Amino acid sequence: MSGENAAPRVSARQLWRRNGLIWAALLSLLFLSLGLAYVPMGRMTMVAGIVIAFVKSSLVILLFMELVKSKPLVRLAAFAGVVCLAALFALTLADVLTRITTTQ
Amino acid sequence: MTDTSGLLREPWDNFERQRSAGKFGIWVFLASEVLFFGSLMLTYTVCRIDHPEAFAAAGRATNIWYGTINTAILLTSSLTMAVASQAATVGRVFRRLVIWCLAATASLGIAFLVVKAFEYKEDIEKHLVPSAGFALHDTGAQLFFGLYWLITGVHAVHLIIGIVLVSRLALLGYLQKLQIGEAPEIEVTALYWHLVDVIWIFLYPLIYLPGRAS
Fold it and tell me: Could you tell me the domains of chain B?
């Protein structure tokens, strides 16, 4: 822990550069998803938007929220949330997507 | 070495463990938030599978510019929040930077709400509130906009809570009542703020991008 007079481990410039690069990547991905939304690719248009959202959120969670540098217990808590969410989607969609629509 | 004894709370007997517990606690809370918003997004997904055409038409009726500008605003607020949080862990040498970044984050949060208010006003004028006089004819479009108002409304409530928390920290820092470098509040609040941003990152393609190519 550095005190009032100790030299900081990183400079303000380094902080801005490191995080600014992530921010630039996030904005580029935002405009990429905006552009791709107007390209007729059928279902892939929606898939592209969702995939880009996953990439953007990974950047925020791993780098801005510093999950890569966190302790295993913290990573486990985050992972538990994602696993529960995946189970929620998988079990619900396993029903919804396999329903047979009857026409009378 | 700076004195952290004033920050120590029961039942912790050492500051590092208290800090780790605080961080673990907020991550468990954030995981529960993921499930909360995830269940709403799952409802959206099931409705969209049943009404793909109506959801495309409803997505086209949203204002993509308000949505894109707001996404850029929130991403930028995450940048200032990340710098504030990381600078705070370095120590008091970055006190001014931390306070400025916290103030910028709260301001960007308010800017998001202002844009959202303009968007809501336009939506109401275009009769996009599910009711008898709803503008789009397909019932699936009413489902879309029902979820739109619910999810964006709950997200806005989360953002307002975030703005209050971040503004409080900026004010305490300015009044020299916050031990920047030791206080774990900045790190914990930053994690909450980033999650509100992550939720919006997923809402953007779900709400604003459907039906643009057709």
Answer: 10-207 (1.20.120.80)
